[in-house]
Amino acid sequence: MKYLAEFSDPVLAKKLVDQIHATVTKPWAMMEVCGGQTHTIVRHGIDQLLPDGVEMIHGPGCPVCVTPLEIIDKALEIASQPGVVFCSFGDMLRVPGSGRDLFRIKSEGGDVRVVYSPLDALRIAKENPDREVVFFGIGFETTAPPNAMTVYQARKQDIANFSLLVSHVRVPPAISAIMESPNCRVQAFLAAGHVCSVMGVSEYPPLAAKYQVPIVVTGFEPLDILAGILRTVTQLERGEHVVENAYRRAVTDEGNTAAQAMLSDVFETTDRAWRGIGMIPRSGWRLSERYRAYDAEYRFQVRDIDTEESKVCRSGEVLQGHIKPHECEAFGTLCTPRNPLGATMVSSEGACAAYYLYRRLQTPEVVSSVG
Amino acid sequence: MAEQVMLPDPARPNFDGWTCPLPLRDHPAVVMGHGGGGQLSAELIEHLFVPAFANPLLEGMADSAVVTLGGARLAFSTDSFVVQPLFFPGGSIGDLAVNGTVNDLAMSGAQAAYLSCGFILEEGVELSVVGRIAADLGTAARRAGVIVATGDTKVVDSGHGDGVYVNTAGIGLVPDGVDIRPQRAVPGDVVIVSGMIGVHGIAIMSVREGVSFGTEVVSDCAPLNGLVAAMLDVTLDLHVLRDPTRGGVATSLNEIAKAAGVGIELTESLLPIPETVANACAFLGLDPLYVANEGKLLAVVAPEDADAVLAALQAHPLGVDAAVIGECVPDHPGMVVTRTTFGATRVVDTPIGEQLPRIC
């Protein structure tokens, strides 16, 4: 963990901001795909430093936000079953399913545990052969390889009491879906650096060419973001639309080929529903036939649950960049991190939560309504 | 408001037809967040306990109550300790049990004089473990200059506890002329922290979760009564003191801002954060402002006293890294805002429960 301070250097940041201002001559709207980038932008106030008319549209790249409701409900049902140890990364515990969350299940006696690696869940399975241990495997190309490795290891070590509840999604099909949306305003993308560190950049040139948009692979520290924005506006001003790698310290053109091989072995591409967006063809991964025995959906025979859903939450439009979080009627009143209507208000990476936490100063009418 | 959007084609992803769950209602049972020191904790106290006990002493919502008894002003406080693991780098539950209550009393300006100590032991815990904890507790009491004057022991069935729980209560005299409470913060006051933040929480997390951060992070668990005494030697007019334990600096400052009806403005570049804590937080997706401390205090003092108080802190072994981190302002009352290193601003809110590590 080096370079944290270096990549937040305010002097260098000011130079980049000045270069962005010197480059921009007209309004532009670009999307940062990844929720981690959204968090950095809002936490450091980067969007407050950009020229008027340069708009950052927050993309659907928060793994918590886009995990479909029915998957959350499946998780709740599995975690409620006796004999189950349900393991998850921390920020999934507060995501509301149909009226409950994993914290609620834990308070009702369910064995719900926060882990920091799927391999921790596998270790728990080895140590508790009489329990069924399930890991909640969600997220993008970034989190998929370790989850694949864990299932691979479970099979290799013949650990039969481990399974994965999987809801993995892929970025490139989402970019296609966003660009083909009738209301799309996105003119360029900051691609998610961590995703590309796994997958490389080869999937992006066809997208840049097809939709005539610059795509700049960008990191997550403040200077990474600013450098990505500078390269993006430079291309936009020149009328270019190519793929650039502004995160070379982590991303190679070919990516992590070992991780890709693991993904190919363990997962297969599938249509996947995204919360707020709906079904996007070929946008997800599920466990392949060889590993079906480790698929929690099959093992626990969880069924879809009818859900009663909010009529006012506009997370989908937020995720697509059609509106800013505070333009939703429910923002800060009916919908707060304490009582989230949608997952964008639950996750620390969610655009609504980020706005609620960091931007209430700019929406004082919200402040007075927050108890 | 966004302009009217076109109806989506059902054959394509629906970008405008988002629906999502009804909001979570208040939890009908206790969840872990009720003990996290954030909004859920505050609501539990405010809506359930305070009405049941109904007396003006509780209205200050301070870490200790200041009561008058036989002509003496006493600070009175209690705290329970349920930490896992029982032993961690830099201390144990025994150290915490003394220092936690000593520090709660110190935040009223009191020097802790006497403690009570209640042990709840789970059947099956080795006596050698209990002995180590008792020894640590005794050593910590001697270091803090406080006497463990009374105690109690209970045993619960195996599986009905978590090894060892400890409760301590304490009393101490509040010096004449001292009036330290959150309501005393006023615009213009200076906010000081006594040292590096986030250390205890990361130390506990590193051993509890087996997450390594390159070098061992050692808890800052320490008694702060000496540090407070050094400050009171400089001025009796300390406005607010707070030890930012659960919920970290952010939660304590929000409590002060709300109690006093002032805004607090932090300057991010002034926050003393050790590199190990910054790295661990970056790795886990946590904010150091919300991470627990066990040997740090926040002081809110009049601007004319700030330099002297800061010097007194820095002259003490537990305050060498003390720093001014912000000020109280008339704007945005009840809210804490930080200026980022790039000159922008963001709100520093009270967490709901405990911070949760991010997925990626």
Structure, described:
- The complex is a heterodimer of chains A (371) and B (360).
- Chain A has 371 residues and is of the alpha/beta class.
- Chain A has a domain of 149 residues: HypD, alpha/beta domain 2 (Rossmann fold), CATH 3.40.50.
- In chain A, the strands form two sheets. In chain A, strands 4-3-5-6-11-10 form a six-stranded mixed sheet, sandwiched between helices. In chain A, strands 2-1-7-8-9 form a five-stranded parallel sheet, sandwiched between helices.
- The longest helix of chain A has 17 residues.
- Chain A is globular, with a radius of gyration of 21 Å.
- The C terminus of chain A is likely disordered.
- Chain B folds into three domains: 53 residues, no CATH class; 110 residues, 2-Layer Sandwich (60s Ribosomal Protein L30, Chain: A), CATH 3.30.1330.10; 166 residues, Phosphoribosyl-aminoimidazole Synthetase, Chain A, domain 2, CATH 3.90.650.10.
- In chain B, a hairpin with a 5-residue loop joins strand 14 and strand 15.
- In chain B, helix 2 runs parallel beside helix 3 and helix 5 packs across helix 8.
- The N terminus of chain B is likely disordered.
- Chains A and B meet through helix 1, helix 2, helix 3, helix 6 and strand 11 of A and strand 1, helix 7 and strand 15 of B.
Q: Helices and strands in order, then pairings?
A:
The complex is a heterodimer of chains A (371) and B (360).
Chain A (H helix, E strand, L loop, with lengths): L9 H14 L4 E7 H10 L1 H4 L4 E8 L1 H4 L2 H12 L3 E5 L13 H6 L3 E4 L3 H10 L4 E8 L4 H13 L5 E8 L1 H9 L8 E5 H7 L4 H8 L3 E4 L3 H17 L4 E3 L11 H10 E8 L3 E10 L8 H4 L9 E2 L4 H6 L30 H9 L4 H4 L4
Helix pairs in contact in A: 1-12, 2-16, 8-13
Chain B lengths: L19 E2 L17 H15 L11 E5 L2 E10 L5 E2 L2 E2 H14 L4 E12 L4 H18 L2 E10 L7 E10 L16 E4 L5 H10 L16 H10 L3 E5 L5 H13 L2 E5 L7 H10 L13 E4 L1 H12 L8 E7 L6 E4 L5 E4 L12
Parallel strand pairs in B: 6-7, 11-14
Antiparallel strand pairs in B: 2-3, 3-8, 4-5, 6-8, 9-12, 9-13, 10-12, 11-13, 14-15
